[in-house]
Write a structure and sequence with these properties.
By secondary structure, the chain is of the alpha/beta class. It contains 15 helices and 23 strands. The radius of gyration is 23 Å and the shape is globular.
């Protein structure tokens, strides 16, 4: 028998958990307790002795073990750890503000699938930037950690948070929009959100409001209409109701109108921006700045400027958006995936606060949500189209689109944004998943169709994938 010569095995590089501003990966293959112990020690080393650090986490099955490892690393550097438990991410930020913490570390993979976990970080009240992430990563490699004896105590921010929210939004009890369907997606708002809405006088129906780190009912990503089918169906069964959904850790929010139709983040952005700018005295207020995620429709920027606001285009990602909010003391931040940032929250985001803010803005309109949507400018844009990098690497996509649109003005704030007379194309590499993100917008129907066809033709490696995604969107 003749045996074929053995080929040298090709080593496949394991995916890295280190993202530009946080960590994400499958547990325990990519994200592990050993890594999190080292990260805790690295952060404690950077902050110095007696640092005050809040730790918290979502309801994923791996979160308790990762939290324990994180606190262990912090304690060995002498940090004072405040364990806020398993709570929505916005409550962890709230807890950090209450105790004037030097840092907050939140074990969560946000909207990623159940098998994943990760870490969101804020140091000195500011989200970590790529330079700080690289510094933490370098310390986990050298293991040149500070030595000390720390202490840990539990801290429950829920009662004070609830008191603050109920005091801030108590007048909504008189709102005409009192019937809500809440879809927590088995995530972090499952128990607390229904209680708050009920205390505010809303007629509440719950679906998927039992915390479960397996996310059995739907994906923890609430930003995609296809994940909210059950919510849409439930809303149509209850007259004059509004659907509200959150992601796995509770900082993103999505809405469904009373007809059971998904409300796009661009539509939400237009309503929130108009509401905020209308409340500002044009003569007395110099600050009419609104931070806009570069993935948002260009019409969001144009409407803000038509209303005498200043649109600040910013790189996609929580850390970049929140950092820009703080740096420019902006009124509002509008994200293309359901994060909304508020000056009132010191530039922070909170999916429950945003939901109440949205309902308040809608109440001032005095119309049903579907009626408000019909009054908005028509938006000719695709949702975010996601192409696996194994199918089409970002560098090839960027090069192909640059050749396809030679006369376009190009912005490179985050990926490449091609600006033409009849529309905009944005291509970028995701910071959390191995996908190329593509968004195609036209300023009118003809422009949208032209640019869409040009993009599909210019990316032959992914043309079938794109056509399938577009077909799937058309049938929803």
């Amino acid at each position: 028998m003749i045996h074929a010569p053995e080929r040298p095995s090709q080593q496949i590089e394991a995916p890295s958990p280190w993202k530009p501003c946080d960590l994400r990966g499958i547990y325990p293959d990519v994200v592990s307790t050993g890594l999190f112990c080292d990260i805790g020690a690295a952060v404690g080393t950077m902050l110095g002795p007696t640092a005050r650090v809040v730790i918290a986490g979502d309801f994923r099955l791996s979160t308790p073990d990762l939290k324990l490892a994180l606190s262990s690393g912090l304690l060995q550097t002498g940090a004072h750890v405040y364990d806020a438990g398993q709570i929505p991410t916005p409550l962890a930020y709230y807890a950090a503000n209450i105790i004037h913490a030097d840092a907050v570390l939140i074990v969560t993979a946000s909207h990623n699938p159940a098998a994943h976990n990760g870490l969101k970080l804020m140091l000195r009240s500011v989200p970590t930037n790529p330079e700080q992430i690289n510094q933490i990563r370098a310390l986990t490699i050298t293991r040149d950690f500070r030595s000390g004896t720390g202490k840990i105590e539990t801290f429950d921010p829920v009662p004070e948070y609830m008191q603050t929210i109920l005091a801030r939004w108590g007048y909504l009890k008189q709102s005409g929009h009192s019937r809500v369907i809440l879809d927590a997606g088995n995530g972090a708002w499952s128990e607390l959100a229904p209680e708050i809405f009920r205390q505010l006088g809303f007629d509440v129906t719950c679906i998927s409001c039992m915390p479960d780190g397996n996310f059995p009912d739907r994906s923890p990503d609430c930003s995609r209409a296809g994940n909210l089918t059950r919510l849409c169906q439930t809303v149509t069964q209850q007259k004059n109701s509004i659907g509200i959904a959150w992601d796995g850790d509770g900082d993103r929010v999505a809405f469904v109108d009373e007809n059971g139709d998904f409300v796009s983040p661009d539509e939400i952005a237009l309503l929130l921006a108009s509401s905020v700018l209308e409340k500002q005295d044009k003569a007395a207020s110099e600050n009419r700045k609104i931070v806009v995620d570069i993935k948002c429709s260009d019409i969001v920027r144009r409407i803000i400027e038509q209303q005498h606001g200043t649109a600040l285009l910013e790189r996609t990602g929580h850390a970049f958006m929140r950092g820009r909010m703080v740096a420019d003391n902006a009124l509002l931040g509008l994200d293309a995936c359901g994060h909304y940032f508020f000056q009132e929250l010191k530039g922070g985001d909170d999916g429950l606060f945003a939901a109440l803010f949205f309902l308040d803005a809608l109440d001032h309109k005095g119309q049903l949500l579907s009626e408000v949507r019909r009054s908005l400018p028509r938006i000719y844009t695709t949702p975010e189209l996601r192409i696996p990098t194994s199918m089409l690497p970002y560098v090839i996509a960027a090069k192909s689109l640059t050749s396809a649109f030679p006369d376009a003005k190009i912005m490179d704030t985050d990926g490449l944004r091609f600006i033409m007379d009849d529309g905009v194309v944005l291509v970028r590499e995701s910071g959390t998943e191995p996908v190329v993100s593509l968004t195609i917008e036209g300023f009118h129907a003809e422009g949208h169709q032209r640019i869409l066809s040009q993009c599909v033709q210019s990316l032959p490696q992914a043309s079938t994938h794109l056509q399938n995604e577009l077909q799937d969107l058309a049938t929803r």
